[in-house]
Amino acid sequence: MDMIELRRLRAFVTVVEEGNITRAAERLFIQQPPLTRLLQGLEDELGVKLLQRLPRGVRATEAGGVLFDEARALLARAEHLTEAVRRAARGEQGHIAIGFTSSAALHPFVPNLLRRYRDILPGITTQLEEAGSGELMDALMDDRLDVAFVRSPASGIPGLTIEPVLSEPMIAALPLGHRLATDTQEPLPLTALAHEAFILYRRPAGQGLYDAILAACHRADFSPRIVQEAPRLPATLSLVGAGLGLSIVPASMRRLGGDGIVYRAIAEDALLSAPLYLALRRSQSSPIVERFRQLVAEAVYPESGQLSQQK
């Protein structure tokens, strides 16, 4: 139905509820003659008598009673539809698909943000997907994800915007009983790992962290001896716990604990950190995504609420 028909239905419902055309006109903020014309137009359109005139008012005929019930339900639905559209335009209702790497999910920032997002915007349904940075970037480009928390800056990928969120130190994960797993209070010089067996996660799964570790080792004048690669960070720690070698992981991975694993800080001069980025399509114009970006920015920079962008 178009707007004029909805207006007629609203006028009819109001008249039946009031039982009086004058009071209905006051409630609708219109004069009585235009209201009477609306009612007559509705009866002409349907070809039936809808109202019975009484000495002191009006009441619905049998056909009018049926229309009253249906019209009231339709008007309620129309109001709900209008509000739903407005909520979607404000980024308060709809759907968002969020990706994250396994290491990103372990940093308190990500689960806390998702929990806050759900509390603030309960009308948004959320789809979560965990994968490697490369897989997440592909999903973004294919429109299968709206945003993703990744560890790689992924510079040079056309069509994507990468926004820095935070950075955390990286630490050494050592097998229990390892010669370097004793003095856990002192930062570990990176050069102390020059002749150790490394377990790293495959580069496509953690490209940013993988490259950062190799670069730091090269700055320390050695190439890491990689004896094993794992598809995900948690699997890397499992191999460390089994005594197959050591690894370097984001500090938040310590939350996993792990049997047979000792964690040590790495000396600051290694310049080893694990950044976290928010990736999204540059052409993304969804108000839901923009609201999510705003929430991320407010969590990172409460004063300005602005994230810097890398394209």
UniProtKB/TrEMBL annotation:
SUPFAM superfamilies per the UniProt record, alphabetical: Periplasmic binding protein-like II (SSF53850), Winged helix' DNA-binding domain (SSF46785)
Membership in a protein family: Belongs to the LysR transcriptional regulatory family.
CDD domains hit by this protein: PBP2_BudR
Transmembrane segment boundaries: none
Keyword Transcription: yes
Protein name as it appears in the record: LysR family transcriptional regulator
Stretches assigned to the HTH lysR-type domain: 4-61
Keywords: DNA-binding, Transcription, Transcription regulation
